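Sample intake sheet
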Amino acid sequence: MKSQEIRKKILALTKEYYKEQFADNNFIPGKQRVNYAGRVFDENELTNLVDSSLDFWLTEGRYSEEFAEKIADFLDVENIILTNSGSSANLLAFSALTSKRLGDRRLQPGDEVISVAAGFPATVTPIIQYGIIPVFVDVDIPTYNIDVNMMRKAVTKKTKALFLAHTLGNPFNIDAVLEIAKENNLWVIEDNCDAFGSKYNGKYTGTFGHVSTISFYPAHHITTGEGGAIITNDDNLARIIKSFRDWGRDCYCAGGENNTCGKRFSQQFGSLPFGYDHKYVYSEIGYNLKMTDMQAAIGTAQMDKLDSFCNARRKNFERYNAIFRKYSDYFILPEATENSDPAWFSYIVTVKENAPFTRDDITRYFNGHLIETRNLFAGNIVRQPAFIDKDYRIADHLKNTDLIMNNTFFLGTYPGNTQEKMDYIENVLDNFIKKQNGHS
């Protein structure tokens, strides 16, 4: 009982500490940085984290179970597998499709997987790491998602899967993607890392593909610091993913449990002795990519804020639209995919070719005034040093991808960008345009 009383005091003091250390959010224009993304939290995340640390259950535990259940309830899906990052989630989702348990549908070296070059490397690297050929399709501007007509023409007899991200929270044309996948018996991996909370035809993204992924890195819609999750309604895929995540083990017991199947010492595997301990049987070439319970403790509190976070992102996106629409002669403004309601990861802008300034001119000006900007990740990934000597195929051309590489940047929509910060961004942009037009 005494330990419980001490715990209550610790948690009460943690709340007081939050108010002293983190609660002051006053913004001083021109003196404080306007970040493109960041953590937004209150005392609940901090007390959950401390509460979990006091349990000292360092791997998956009670908070992991609660966090996974909240995600499953939010998305209305069957299986949530927590992992240590969104990149690991992508790796595990792709790894699962290489499993022998999938028979003729498994991905093997020499197969092709369609993706885009205008994106983040973690959507592409698993393809290369398994000796499979990425096929790069150009994207559409102003949605910044895959060109579905070019994608349809890119499918060959070697094509086995589509591995696509919802760019910066804007859903790709899911109806077209699923139609192409069904016609050609293709797997669909839905990289939902930048789009947790976005909707397509009234349904949450991340629920359409055979398997999908989420990231909980601080830049994303909710955060656990590092962290990610894999989503699937296919129980067989879920078990394969868990195996790859947990060293490749065949056993599916939860941490600290034994003999869930009731056959721990009574089965035959490979050329092992009959009855070899099932907890030490490995059916996949796996990893150890689990989430800790302390990360999950933060996630359970963040999930309670997801709806409000997404609404704030939509509101900031609309404010950016109003700010940049004044200068539509110079900028291509982003557009949501038809039938979608994005929870925008950021506000993406392309400087028109005839503008009197370049992308680098305006991003230097913004950053010089403490407003963070980012390029669209890798730009054109085939031009990145790591990919120059790798095997890949370009479906037709990457003209828009190259335009994005040279002319595109984005600003933050995250909830930490308050009204005061948005006002400051508008003021800085107005001054930049005045200077371009010869006004001091």
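Comment: The chain has 13 helices and 14 strands. The domain at 306-436 is CATH 3.90.1150.10 (Aspartate Aminotransferase, domain 1).
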